[in-house]
Structures are given as structure tokens and as C-alpha cells.
Amino acid sequence: MISGSLVALVTPMDSRGNLDWQALDRLIEFHLNEGTDGIVAVGTTGESATLDMEEHKEVIRRVVDKVAGRIPVIAGTGANSTSEAVELTQDARSVGADACLLVTPYYNKPTQEGLYQHFRFIAEAVDIPQILYNVPGRTACDMLPDTVVRLAEIDNIIGIKEATGDLQRARELIERVGDRMAVYSGDDPTAVELILMGGKGNISVTANVAPRLMHELCEAALNGDAETARRLNEQLMPLHRKLFIESNPIPVKWALHEMGLIGEGLRLPMTRLSDDCQPVVREALKQCGLL
């Protein structure tokens, strides 16, 4: 089972918005050296919404090739078109991804039955472990626990990234499907509590800039060491909060640029972190000993 600190990796770009392959290689080595337990490529934080289909596939391929089996690679292959999600998932399987992460369809707002049919269709079409991703704050679509319970009956649906930050929801999911699928946090501030109640890890934005600390936090929580896990969480709380001062991934990409790890590029409609917010994120980096 994939577990621990799973970084929702940014996609490095230059100042003109072109993909920066050398920076991507450096980032991957940074995470391998700092103890990250798995990489999620081309998720929300990886700017999946503004990569075209071929770029999306190529980033996943390059991450898989560079990691070379040293840690699991989870490919973000979700879409609000079922056929597009199938195509991305098939390609990720063909290049050797260990699993795929599939977000709930955004904008078109399917019913719960529509969500069930969407995810079942993809699971039956592509034989690769698949992790559901529920983030209603970004998709305007909330997959309810009853639907997750139905999907847990499908063998290759192995987990869910629950990014609501609602610990009551997380506890219900763990109680109802935790024997059949892994429940991962997708909300850095509450991740430690979700893991302590039986979750298997955290798909993390904060891990982009503090991979060692996030690995240690997840490891402690998975081992039931609540005191250590909560102490590390308090240490990281400035980052958990300030990396969302503007829409993700604007702050985290600025932070990585400030740390000298990537260029400053994003793609419209995302824009550079505002001047007023830069000192706030810089101070959070300093508080965590990263600058």
C-alpha cells in the first residue's frame, strides 16, 4: 500500500510559461534525497488545468523515468470528460505509473450516480490502481460517503484523497471503507489528525517546500506517535496556512522560486504572488527554517 508523505508536485516552468525539464529533474532528486514517500504528478498543484494533453502525458512520463522505481509515482489523470480521463489513465499505465489520482469531474456537476458511473467506467477501462480525489472547494462537486462505499467494491479503486478538511467526514470514510481502501488527507492543516485516526498518508502541498518535515510528520502519525506528529504539525502550521494565501499553486511556486529550486513561471490565468503576500510567505518559510 502507498503511504506516507505524498507530494503534490508542482510543474516547473520558465518565465514564459514553458515547461522546465531540468528544474523538474532537480525537484525530483530533491524529494528523493529529503525522504518524500511518493510523488503525485500533474495534480491540481501541478497545474493540470493549463497543460495540454501531450504536455500532461509527457510530465508523467518524465517523472516516472526519473524516479525509476525508487518511490511510487501517482499520476494525476482526472478530467471532467470521462473519455479524456480514460485516455490519460491509459497513458499513465503504459509509461509505468504505480497508480492514478482521479479528481471528481469539475464544472459539469454530475449527480452521485453520475460520479459512480464515471469512476466505475474508468476503473473497468484501465487496469491500474486508482485513487479517488474529492475536493469540492475547487470542483463544485462533492462525492458523498455513500458513493465512496459503492466504489470501494471495485477492486482497483484502492483509495481516496479526501480534501474537504472535514475530520468527521474522514472518520466516517475510515470506518466505512478503511478495510478496503486507503483514506488519504488532501488538507495539510488537518492531515495529522486524519492519519492518527487511521488514514494512510497525506497528499501534500506543504511537502513541496518542507519534504523532510512532512515525511517525519507522516511517519510519526502512521506509527501512532501523536506527540511527535502534532509537534511537527505545529512547526509546519505557518506554511500550511500561508501557502494558501492566494490560490494554489501560486504561493508554493513562489516559495520554491525563493528557495532557489525552480523558476518563477506559471500559466495564465494564474499570476505571480502579489507583492503584499510575498513577505507573508517568506516569513512562513523562515519560521520553518527553510530560508
From TrEMBL:
Pfam families: DHDPS. It is found in: Cytoplasm. Signal peptide: none annotated. Coiled coil: none annotated. Pyruvate binds at T45, I203. The record marks T44, Y107 as: Part of a proton relay during catalysis. GO terms for molecular function: 4-hydroxy-tetrahydrodipicolinate synthase activity. Keywords: Amino-acid biosynthesis, Cytoplasm, Diaminopimelate biosynthesis, Lyase, Lysine biosynthesis, Schiff base. The active site is at Y133 (proton donor/acceptor), K161 (schiff-base intermediate with substrate). Catalyzes the condensation of (S)-aspartate-beta-semialdehyde [(S)-ASA] and pyruvate to 4-hydroxy-tetrahydrodipicolinate (HTPA). This is 4-hydroxy-tetrahydrodipicolinate synthase.
